[in-house]
Each structure stands twice: as structure tokens, then as C-alpha cells.
Amino acid sequence: MTNPHDPFGDRSQHPENRGDSGDGGNGEFPSYPSYPSYPSTPHPEDAPGYAGYSGYSGYGAADWGSAGQPAGIQPQGTGRIDAMAAVRWAFSAVFRNWKVWILGMLALLVVSLIVSAVGEFLFPTSGGQVPAEFSPGMETGLNAGGLIFQLLYGVASVVVTVLIYHGALRQVDKQDLSFRDFTGNVNLGPAVGLYILLQFLMVLVLAVILVPVALGGGLFAVDQLTSQDDFLSFLGVVLGLLLVAVVLSLLVTPLTQLMIWYVIDRRASFGGAIKEGFRAGLNNYGRLLVFNLVAGIVMLLGAMVTLGLALLILGPAYLLTLAMMYRQASGGALPVDAR
């Protein structure tokens, strides 16, 4: 007799469930009473090929398990930026890894000053050059050398910037960061190319708008300044152009500042990063605009009050906030300690 709780298959094939000895009366197996059994419970972890919860599968998957957190349970971005949550997390990450971010920022600043000083010493840009009448051809050689030095310095600066961006994304994925995280598996070529392209396009847009205004305002007629009124008028044009440039940069930046992160994060190709970054920036345009405005004011005032020392903290915090907001806007993995 069977009951609804019997599992599939013939239970009578098991000796312990048979009413007789199970050996045709030889007594080899004792008789057991027939007990109802419970239905089996499926266990997906026992199935072949089960790999657990996959979580965020893109580049930069989380490494929180080593810090006492279960791996693979990072929350995901929703496509909407939460600037305050990003700022809170960024400052906590800066202070938690202060040896990397604060001391690293200080070391980078010192190295930059040293390199600039060496370049100025080797290729002076002012009265330090040798007059052409005393050494024919020397002045031209120094100018060419200075140009090459500035070009190499600019390329190196872009490379270092991309490495810092890469490290900021790794900080989103890790509680503890080391200097090795800045140089491991970097998508360097496409990121450098896109960074240079974005900077060039920004300069081109500003030039197209500002040069006609400057011509109309007589900005290039400096040699015609013959009175104090002319000088004040010239100064007004300069300040007006600077204001226009700042406003234009502020309005355009939200549409472009997320593009580079897609390439560094390996979530999109060169062209795809432009498309996805523009879309994410457009969807969060107001939030990014307000954040950039407030961040710019805070960093300017902090630098003025502390003679630049506050930038050792505000600079890394700003960059980490951008990395966090990119992950929020792109639907990527977020830190499990973000609140």
C-alpha cells in the first residue's frame, strides 16, 4: 500500500520497506515496518554546473569577501545618481585608505613640481634663453626642446590621470586599496585616446564660441591700449570671456564626464562609451550639474582658506565621488558599505 508521501519509484525494492525477509524466506534480512517518507527537497547547489549568485559580472567585480563580507552580494546602481550617498562613501574611503589617497596625492604633487622645475631649468621660457646674436641657432633649439618636453609631459599627465581613474574604480570594488591596484589590467590605450579626444572637443567648442566674442571685444588689440579706460575695458572683456568659458564648461561637463569611466571599466567600446556616457549624463543632467557647481565652489573655497592643503583630501574625494556616481548611473556594482 502506498500513500501520498511516498517518493517516486518503487519503495518495495528496498529491503527495509518490505514485509518479508527480502530473501525469499531465508531470513537474511529482518522485516521492517513500512514508515511513510517525506518528499525530497530540491537543492540547486547540488546540481551540476551550479556556480552560486553571479552578482555583477562586468570588469571590476567585487572583492569584498576578503574583508569579512560575503562575496557577490554588492548592490547595483539603479541608473539614478545619489550624490549625497556617493560623497559620504567617498570621504570614508579616502580616510580609510589615507596612505594611498592623501599621501599619494601629496607625492604626486611633489613629483609634478619637481618635473616642472627641471623642465623650466632645461628649457626656460623667459629671459633665461641665450640671445640669438651670441649663439646663432641656440634659441630655436631651446624652443624646440621645450615644445617636445611639454608634449611628453602632457602625455604622461594623461596616462597618470587614467591610472588614477582606474584606481578610483578599484576602490569602489574593494575596501582596502594598494598602489598595485592602479596599474593592474588597465584599459590604457582606449582610455587615453578618449580622454584626449574629449579634451580636444571641449577646447574646440570653447574656441568656436569665444574667439568671435574676443575679436568683437577687441581683445587682440592690446597694443591700442592708450588710456586707463581702454585698459579697464580690455580687462572687462577678459573677465567676461572667462565667465562665459566657466558657464559653458559647467553646462557641457555633465554630458561628457561619465564617458571615460565606461572605457576604464571595460563596459563599452570607444564609440559605445561616448553613447552610453552621454545617455547616462543626460538622464542625470540636473544632479550632475548641481554636484559640479557645489563641488567647484567647495574646492575653490577650501583651497583659498587652507592655501591648497584641503585639496589633498577634496581632490581624491571628488574623484571617488565621480567613480561612485558613474556606477550608480550605469547600473554597475556599488560598495556594500555605501549608505
Automatic annotation (TrEMBL):
Asked if the record carries the keyword Transmembrane, the reply is yes
Domain of life of the native organism: Bacteria
**TM stretches of this protein:** 100-123, 143-165, 186-211, 231-264, 285-318
Q: Which UniProt keywords apply?
A: Membrane, Transmembrane, Transmembrane helix
> Region annotation Disordered: residue ranges?
1-46
Q: Does the keyword Transmembrane apply?
A: yes
Comp. bias regions, Low complexity: 30-40
Basic and acidic residues biased stretches: 7-21
Q: Which named protein is this?
A: Uncharacterized protein
UniProt source species: Corynebacterium humireducens NBRC 106098 = DSM 45392
Supply the source organism's classification: Bacteria, Bacillati, Actinomycetota, Actinomycetes, Mycobacteriales
